[in-house]
Amino acid sequence: MIEPATSDPRPILAVLLSAVTILLILASHRYPNVRESWSVLAAVGKFAVVVSMLPGVLDGTEYRWSMGEFVAGIEFALRADALGMVFALLASFLWIGTSFYAAGYMRGLDEHSQTRFFAAFAASLSAAIGIAFAENLVTIFLFYELLSVATYPLVAHDETDEARAAGRKYLAYTFLGGGVLVLAGTALVFALSGTVSFSAVAGQGTAAGLGDSSTALARAAFTMLAAGFGVKAALMPLHSWLPDAMVAPTPVSGLLHAVAVVKSGVFGIARLVLDVYEPALVAELGVGIALAAVAAVTLTAASIIALRADRLKRRLAFSTVSQLSYIVLGLGLVGPAAAANAGLENVIKGGLLHIPAHGFMKLTLFFCAGIIHVETHTDYISEMDGIGKRMPLTMLAFAVAAAGMAGIPLVAGFVSKWFLLVGSVSAGQAVFAAVLLVSGVLNIAYFWPIVYGAFFESHDRADSKPLIEGPFGGELFGSAAPAGGTAHTDGGPRTDGAGGDGHEHRQDGEHGKDSHGETHSPDGEHASDHGKDSHSETHGHHGGPGPGGWERVGWTGAEGSWLMLGPILVVVAGAVVLGLVPFQVGFLELIEAVAEDAATGVTA
Amino acid sequence: MSEVVELALALLVVVPVLGATLPLALGLLRDQVGWAVAVAVLAVEAGLAARVAYDLAIEGSRVVHVLGGETFGRKSQELSSGESTEGFAVGIELVGDPLSGLVVALVAGVSLGVLAFARRSGPRGNAFYSGYLLLTGGLMGVALTGDLFNLFVFLEISGLTTYALVASGRSAPSAVAALKYLVLGTTGASMYLIGVGYIFVRTGALNMVDVSETLAGNVEFLDTEGALYGDPLVVAAFGFIAVGLATKAAIFPLHTWQPDAYAEAPDTVTVYISALASTAAAYALARVTWFVFTPAFFDAGAANRRVLEFLLVLAATSVVVGSALAAMQPRVKRMFAYSSVAQFGLIVIGIGVAVHPAAGEQATRFAVYGVGIHLVGHAVIKSGLFATAGALSAATGARRVGEYAGLARERPFLAGGMATLGFALVGVPPTVGFIGKWYVALGAVEAEHWPLVTVIFVSTVLSLLYMARVLEKLYFAGSPDATGEPAEEIAGSPGGAGGAVAADGGDTAESITGESADSDEPVTTDGGGSASLGMMALALTAAVLTVVLGFAGSELSAVLDPVVEAVVDAAPEVNP
Question: What's residue B351's pLDDT?
Fold first, then answer.
C-alpha cells in the first residue's frame, strides 16, 4: 500500500459494537426476543461498519485506529487492510445468519443458560474482528487470548462431564498455543527486530530486523508463532481439541469452530508468513516448506480419520482439520514459490480464498447437522439413510456444500483449489498438488455416502458402510472382529452391517461398553461419544427414523423452523455465488491485492 | 514545596504508628472504636500518600528526609587528615524515589481499602486495629527507608505485627500458623541482619547510598583500594541478605509459612497481607540488589555470578513448584497462597535478570519495568482474589473449590470478578498481570537466558492449572448440591438421607458433621450468610483496577524510567 493509513474510528467501532452488546444481552436476560434482537442488530451493525470500509480498502486506503502506547515501544492499534478485511467480512457476514440460526437452535432444544450463550457469542465475535484488524503481534495476541476466554463458556456450555472435559482440553490447548507459544514468539520477534508491527510499509515492519538476526533464533521464533497459531488452526498434532469441542451446541461448532476461531488461527499464520516474516525471508529461512509439509500430513491424515467417523459432527470436525490445512499449505508454499519466483500469487490466492470458501461451505454443513439434530435427534450417519425424505432442503444444501468441499466447479471450493494446484505446480512442488488431488478424492469418499444414503437409500434397505463398520485393516488382513460385534471407534450402531434396525442395536451397543473397549482411537473418541450417548439417553432422545421410517416432507420448508432453514439456504447460496462469480463478491479482489503486495515485495 | 513532601515522608511513617495508640487509648472510653479510628488515620495517610506518590512517581523526583534534620541528623565531620566526611556517618534517612512512590501508593490504598472489607468481616477488637495501623506504619517504613539497619527495624515491626494479626483468628490453627510464620520470619530477618552486620563490618556504613559508594570504591577518604565487590565478606553478606528477604517473600523452599498463614488468618488479614507483606520484602530485595550492590557487583567475580544464578534457580523453581502445589489444593485460600509463591518467583526472576551480567540495557530496562509493575499488579490481583474468596465465603460459606460449584448463578458479580482476576493472574491481556509478565519475559529474552524464558512462558499454563479449576466449578459445575460434599448433604438437606441421619439422634449427625467438616477450620460464616457491600466493593474494585491498570502499561513504565537509568548506570540512587 503506497498511501499512508487514514486515521478512522471504524476498526475499533466494529470491535466494540458487539462488546457493548454483551451488556445489553445480559441486561435483557428476561426477554428472550429482545435479547436475540440485540445479537442480530449487533451482527448487522458490525457487518455494516466493516463493509463501509470495503471500497476504501479496495482502493488502497487503510483505516487505522490507535489507543497509543500499550507497552513500551508497542501500540495498541487496529488497521483495516486488505488481509484483515477478508477475515472481518467473513466473520461479520456469517454472524448475521448464525444469530438467527442460533436462536432457532437454542429454542428448538430448549437449552439452558441462553443468555450466557449469546453474550459469550458476542464477545467471541468482538475478539475475532479484533484479530482481523490487529496492527501488530501484541494486539493480535491480546484478542487471540480474549477469543480463547470468550469461546470457553460456549464449549463447556452443556455442563456435562463430557463438556467440562472438552472445555478443559480446549483451555489447555488454546492457552498453550496462545499464552505460551504466540507470546514467546512475539517476545522473541520484538527482541530480535525491535518492533512487532506487521509490515505495512516495507522496512517498517518486523521482517527487516528478523532478516538481520541469527538464523537459528529467527527460525525458532517462526516455529513458535506457527505452532502457537497452529493450535487454533488445528495443525496436527495440536488438533485434538477440535473434535472434542464438537460437544458444544452446533451454532458454536459452526461459526466458531469452523469459521471464527479456527480461521483466526490460519489468519495468524497468514499474518506470520506475509507480514511478519514476508515471503522473501520465509524462503531464505526455509521454514515455508516445513510448514507446507506439516499441512500436507494434516490434510491427508485428517481426511482418513474422517472416513471412519460415524458421528456427523465428528466427521465434519476432521473435515475442518483437513480443509484448514489447505490454507496453511498455500501459505507454506509461499516459501518455495518465493524462492522459485513463480506461483507466489497463485498459492497466496488459493490459500487465502479458501478462508471464505471453506467458511461458507463448512458453516452450511454444520447448520445442516444442527437442524437434523433438532428436528430428528439424529447424530449418526448410519441412521441417516433416507433422511432426504424428511429433510429435503437441508440435504440438498448439504449436497451442494459437500460438492464444494470436494472441489467440484461452480461451488466455492473449486476456485481456491484451482489456484493452489496451479501455484504449487509452478513453484516446482508438484507433490503437494498430488496431495491436494488425493484429498479431493478422500473428500468425495467421506461426503458422498451421506448424500447418497440420504436421497437414494431408505432406512431399511441401505447398503453396508464398510469404512465405518469394518475392522481396521479390512476384512482380509484386519484384526478379527471382537466378540459382541465389530469394533467401533465412535460408539456407532450396526453390529451386523445389515439394515436399518440399527436403531435397536445401537441401544445395545451403547450399554455394551466392553465390546468397544478394544479399539481406542488416539483422540479418545470412545469417551466423548459414549458421554454424548448417555447425555442423549438422559434426555430421552431416540436417534434415527421411527419404526415406520422417515416421514415424507415436501420441499416447501416444512421440515424445520425457518429460523434455521433460512440461514442454511442463504449461506449455501453464498457458497454457490462465491463459486460462480468469485471476482464480484469482494473477497477475491481483496486477496488479489494482498497477493500483489507480497509479490512486489519479493521482486522489489 | 518539596519541604512539604519531605515532611510528608516522615509523616507517612509516623501517622499510623502514633495512630496505633489511639484504638487502645480510646478503648478505655468505649468499645469497638478501632475501626473508626483506623479509617480516620488511614484516610489522612492516604491523602499524604497521594501527595507524595504524585511527586515521586509522576514528577519523578527524589526526596530525602534526614531524620533529626540539621541539628541531630547526619553531619559532616572533620577527619584527622583534614578531609570532610560530607555527611558520611551513621544517621537515618528516609528516601523517596519513583519505585518507592509506587509502593507507598499501594500500601496506603490497600490499607484503606481493606477496611471496607473488615467492617463486616471483623475481627473487631481495638487491639486488632492497633496492630493493623502499626503494620501499615512498618510497611511504609520499609518502602521509604534509606538505611539498611532501619530497614531491618521496619521489617521486624511489620513482621511482628503480621504474626499478631495472623493469630487474631483465635483458633488453634491460626495460632500454629502464626507461630510457624514467627519462627521462619524471625529466622529470615536474622539472616538479613547478619548480612547487614557483615556489610557494616566491611564498609563501616549503614546508609544505602554510602554503602553502595563504599562497595564501589568511590569514597576517597576511606582507603578501600578499589571496589569491594570481590570481598568474601561482602559476597556472603549478599547471600545472607538475599536468603533473609527471600524467606519473607516466600520463595521456595523458604515459603512453607505462607500457605498456613494465609489460609488460617481471618479473611480480612489475608487480603491485607497477601497484597503487602511479601510485596514489601520483594521491594526491599529489589532495592538492596539494584542500588546497594548494583549490577557491577554481580559481574565482579565467579562467586558473585554463582550467587545470582542460585537465586534465579530458586526463583524459577518457585514458579513451577508454587503453581504445581496450588493445583493440588482443595482449599481456596491455600491455593491462592501457593499461587503467591509462584508469582513472587516471577518477580525475583525479574530482580535477578535486571542485574545479570548478560543483561544489556534493554534487558535491564524491561526487567525493571516488569518488577515494578508486577509488584503493584500482583498485589492488586491477589488481594482482589482473596477479597472475592472472602466475600463468597461470607455469602455462602464456601471455602473449598468443590463448594464453589455453580456459585456463579447465585453470585454473578463476585464470580465475574473472580474470573477477571483469575485471568489476570494467568496473564491474559489487557490486564495488569499480562503487563508485568510481558516485561519480565522480555527482559529474560533480551538477556538470552533461555531456561528462565521457558519457565516464565510455561508459567502461564501452570497458573491456568489451578485457576481454570476454580472458574470451571463456578460456572459449569451445576448446582452446589450436585457435588456431594458430605458436610453440605448432612448440614443442609431437608429430606432423604440427611434427615434420616439427623433423626437418628444428634450424636450421629454431629459426629458425621464433625468428621466431614474441615477439621482445622471453624465452620462459621462471619457475615451470617451475606457478603457486605464493603466486601463486594473491594472485590469488584480490584477487578476493575486490574483491567484499568492493564491499559496503563506505558504510563507505569514511564514512571519507572528514572529507576531504569539508575540501575543501568550502576548508580546508588535514582536521580531525576
Answer: 96
User: Do residues A102 and A118 make contact, with C-beta atoms less than 8 angstroms apart?
Assistant: yes
With CB atoms and an 8 Å threshold, state whether A164 touches B472: yes
Residues of chain B found within 8 Å of residue A146, distances taken between Cβ atoms: 428-429
Which residue reads 571496589 in cell numbers? B227
CA A316/CA A310 separation, integer angstroms: 10
- Global pTM value: 0.87
Query: Could you give the angle at the alpha carbon of A171 between the alpha carbons of A169 and A173, nearest 5°?
Result: 65
Q: Is B476 on the interface with A (CB under 8 A)?
A: yes
Output the pLDDT for position A603. Answer: 61
- Are the beta carbons of B295 and B354 closer than 8 angstroms? yes
For residue B337, pLDDT over 90 is answered with yes
CA distances from B498 to A329, B407, B482, B501 (A): 62, 22, 14, 5
Write out the residues of chain A at the interface with chain B, using a CB-CB cutoff of 8 A. Answer: 67-72, 76, 116, 138, 141-142, 145-146, 149, 153, 156, 159, 163-164, 167-168, 171-172, 175-176, 179-181, 183-184, 187-188, 190-191
Percent of chain B residues past pLDDT 90, beyond the cut: 63
Residues 6+ apart with CB under 8 A from B421: B381, B384, B385, B388, B542, B543, B546
Q: How confident is the model at residue B82 (pLDDT cuts 50, 70, 90)?
A: low
Q: Where do we find the cell 470457553?
A: A152
Residue A85 vs residues A230, B343, B557: alpha-carbon distances, Å = 21, 40, 34
DSSP state of A584: G
The ranges of chain A with pLDDT < 70 are 1-4, 199-205, 478-542, 602-604
Q: Which residue of A has its CA nearest to B406?
A: A159
Residue B331: predicted pLDDT: 94
Which residue of B lies nearest to A152 if distances are taken between CA atoms? B472
Top residue of B431, B445, B453, B556 to mutate, by most chain A CBs within 10 Å, is B445
ipTM of the complex: 0.86
* Per-residue pLDDT at A549: 75
> pLDDT value at position B83?
65
Using CA coordinates, name the residue in chain B closest to A145: B428
| Partners of residue B426 in chain A, C-beta under 8 Å | 175, 179
Distances (CA, A) of A162 to B96, B120, B461: 56, 41, 22
Q: For residue B77, name the pLDDT band (cuts at 50, 70, 90).
A: low
Does the beta-carbon distance from A72 to B439 stay under 8 Å? yes
The residue of chain A nearest to residue B459, with distances taken between CA atoms, is: A180
- What is the per-residue pLDDT across A98-139, written as a single tens digit (0 to 9) for each? 999 999 899 888 888 889 999 999 999 999 999 999 999 999
The CA distance from B353 to A331, in Å, is 38
Mark yes or no for CB contact B366/A72 under 8 Å: yes
Asked if pLDDT for residue B542 goes beyond 90, the answer is: yes
Distance CA A139, CA A132 (A): 10
Nearest to residue A364, comparing CAs of A323, A328, A318, A316? A316
